[in-house]
Give the backbone structure.
Amino acid sequence: MATVHTVKGAVDVGTLGPTLMHEHVFVLTTENVQNYGSGAWWDEEVRVERAVAKLNELSAHGITTIVDPTVIGLGRHIPRIQRIADATDVNIIAATGVYTYGDLPFCYTQRGPGTVMDGPDPMIEDFTRDLTTGIGDTGVKAAFLKCAVEHAEMSPGVERVVRAVARTHVETGAPITVHTSSPEQSGRPVLAILAEERVDMTKVVIGHAGDSNDLEYLMAIADTGAVLGMDRFGIDLFNATSDRVRTIAELAARGYADRMVLSHDASCFMDWFGPDFEALQEAVMPNWNYLHISNDVLPALLEAGLTQAQLDQMLIENPRRYFS
Ligand SMILES: [Zn+2]
C-alpha cells in the first residue's frame, strides 16, 4: 500500500477515508496578521481552539481527511497547523507551491530562468524540499503541489509557477492541484502547459471546475484524465448548490464519477474579508463551511440519482488514487 504524508506523519492511503479535497484551515496575509492583527483581531489561541472545534465537528459528520492547499501567498504556517492537527482526529494534508494571479513573490522575481540570476527555477528546489525533506524545521512533508491560474491569459509569473510545479511533479511524482477560473475556462491553457511538461494528468485536480455547468468544458478537462474539483460547495455567488448538484449528476450519468472530487474551499478564518469573517460568512454565505456537503449535498446527490458507490468513489476512492 502507498503511504501519504499528513501533518502528523505518513499514513496508509487506504486509511484516508472520506476526504474533502480542497479545504483551508486558515487563509491569511501573513504580514497583515503580524502588523495589524496581533493584539487586535487575531488571537492565536482562540483561532486555534475554534479550528480544532470545527474539525472535530467535521469528524463527527464522518469526514476523516481534509486536503489543505494553503501555500506561499495564502499564509501557510505549518507550526500552527501542527498544533491543530495534534488536537483532532481529522487528517490534514499539507501542500507546497505558490499562489498568485499575476506577479511572483519578490523572493523569486530576480532568480531563475531569464532573470539577473539566470538558472534553474529556485521554486523547484523549494517545492522539492517541502515534499522530500519537510517544510521549514517542522519535519512535516507536503504531499501535493498547488498553483493558481485565475486568468486564461497567463502572466509570465504565473506561467513560471505552473512550469515549476509541473517539473517538480515530474521529478517527485507528487500530485498537483490547480486553482482555475471557470468563467475564463482557464483550465484549458493550464492543461496545455501540463501536457507540454509531460505531467501525468490522472494526478491533476482542476480546482474550482465545479463553478461551471458547461458540460462541454468539464468533459474536455476530464477526457484528458484530469480530475474535476467540484470543490466550492457553499459559494452560491459563483454557482448555486442545486446547479452544482445537477451538473455532477449529469457527469456521473455520463461515466465521469471516477474523475470528480468534492469540497467547499472553506476555511476556519480568512483575512480577505476582514476581522469579522465569521459574521460575514453567516450573513452572506451561510453554507460556506465544512459541513454543507455532509448535511446537504450528499443527500441531494442521492436524490439526484447518484448511488452510494458513486459518492464513495468521489469522496474515498478518487482521493486515494490521487495520493497513491
Ligand atoms: Zn482554495
User: Anything to note?
Assistant: The pocket of zinc ion is lined by residues 22, 24, 69, 265 (CB under 6 Å). The mean pLDDT is 97.
